[in-house]
Amino acid sequence: MTTQTTEKTLLGRAALVTGGSRGIGAATALRLAREGADVAVTYVNGKEAAEEVVRAVEALGRRAVALRADAGDPDEAASAVSAAVRELGRLDVLVNNAGIGALGPMESLSPADVDRVLAVNVRGVFLTTRAAAAVMSRGGRIVTVGSCMAQRVTGPGGTLYAMSKAALVGLTKALARELGERGITANIVHPGPTDTELNPADGPYAAGQAAATALGRFGTSEEVAETIVHLAGAAYVTGAEVAVDGGHAA
């Protein structure tokens, strides 16, 4: 007779999930907690939703805190890290999940649209990651949420968004080299169409997105979170792009 163990892979670790009030971020925060981690989540406008995530994490027996931080603001992007360390005592895992999209023909996008998307999706990720790397010890984990559109774009209208997410691939690979000697890993996860509040599986554009995948369906936030949290515990995977996209890039 064999006995299955339920060892928590991240017990005693502390994680920061940016944009953790809903969708993939919220699912990741809960999954991290189930694996034993204490969790800080950032939000901009979703204070009540973020506090719900905190309560759900605490119900799992872990510490949690919600921090208001706009990834598009350079000071707030970096200060989220120091706030998480202050509340949790340390930082072992960073999940760069906060991001925005501005879809449409290039000529329809204003300079303000370009600046905002790049500020949140690229500059904010860089600044948060830099601050996190400065306080992480050996064994730290950085996981960034990219997009299936960084690997394959199936139609027009996504130029700005795809560009911003493709930049994170270069960041991740460079981080793996820069931080590898310290035993810190950096990886990027590319979700495909995922059923969230912002992109529901029954939305007006859902049929085309589902049809672009090999499995013919949207993924769930939990399916993406599963891979993110696996990478948060993996010691010998770094510089990798991992698609959780139902075959979008196949």
UniProtKB/TrEMBL annotation:
InterPro entries, per the entry: KR_dom, NAD(P)-bd_dom_sf, SDR_fam
Classification via Pfam families: adh_short_C2 (PF13561)
UniProt domain Ketoreductase: residue ranges: 13-194
Gene3D superfamilies: NAD(P)-binding Rossmann-like Domain (3.40.50.720)
Similarity remark: Belongs to the short-chain dehydrogenases/reductases (SDR) family.
Protein known as: Oxidoreductase
Native organism: Streptomyces griseorubens
